[in-house]
Amino acid sequence: MKLLKRILITLGLLIVLALIGGYFFLNHVKTVALPDYSKDVQIPGLTGEVTILRDSFAIPHIYAENEADLYRAVGFTMAQDRLWQMDLLRRVTQGRLSEIMGKDQLNTDLLMRALRIQEKSKKVLAQSSPEIVAALEAFSAGVNFYMEKYPLPPEYRILNYKPEPWQPVHSINLIGYMSWDLTSGWGIEIFLHQLAKEVSSEHIIHLIPDSETHSTPVFSNEVPVFIPDEIIL
């Protein structure tokens, strides 16, 4: 009985120690990447003074002497608060979720690749003004500085990977994704495409309005656009 009692006490102590150790470990993982808003930061590439003030809700208010510095500071601040979300959405737009989350996300990746968001973003970037390109490059530099010099969010440890450098085209990707995500038109267009194969052109013209004067396609008419018969979500 004495031996059994000692074994039970030892097991109890080990369980308590494991729970205490687990608590401190999880607390460390949870807080190690939290930004310290009170510290001064030397962001490389700035040409003037930049001030980032946080209000009582931790919302940043950024003051800069020129636009290049402003966008660089915005990139740093956004990465400081939302790096994991930014990287996750970037992977969504590229159809690369399954690389970090497994084959369960394969259908999502196939759908996003069919939308060709990044291909369109590259075309938009190529046609953008030098001012827009400079702003996107400054923003990217701010994001990359944070990724290189500061602790990454715990999600990267959990999924065991590191984020890739942020590029100007990635910012345009997110705009394209938001445009697609906030509209239901794509589902209706697929339905009408399938309907057009079953109904005569005389009847279908009454269902599909002529929107040529309102459309601004990224791809020219010479570039074939893939429209799948079925999309598995």
UniProtKB/TrEMBL annotation:
SUPFAM superfamilies according to UniProt: N-terminal nucleophile aminohydrolases (Ntn hydrolases)
TM helices/strands, residue ranges: 7-26
A Pfam family reported for this protein in Swiss-Prot or TrEMBL: Penicil_amidase
Molecular function (Gene Ontology), one example: hydrolase activity, acting on carbon-nitrogen (but not peptide) bonds, in linear amides
InterPro entries from the UniProt entry: Ntn_hydrolases_N (IPR029055), Penicillin_amidase_dom1 (IPR023343), S45 (IPR002692)
GO BP term (any one): antibiotic biosynthetic process
Protein family membership: Belongs to the peptidase S45 family.
PANTHER family the UniProt entry points to: ACYL-HOMOSERINE LACTONE ACYLASE QUIP (PTHR34218:SF4), PEPTIDASE S45 PENICILLIN AMIDASE (PTHR34218)
Protein name, UniProt field: Penicillin amidase
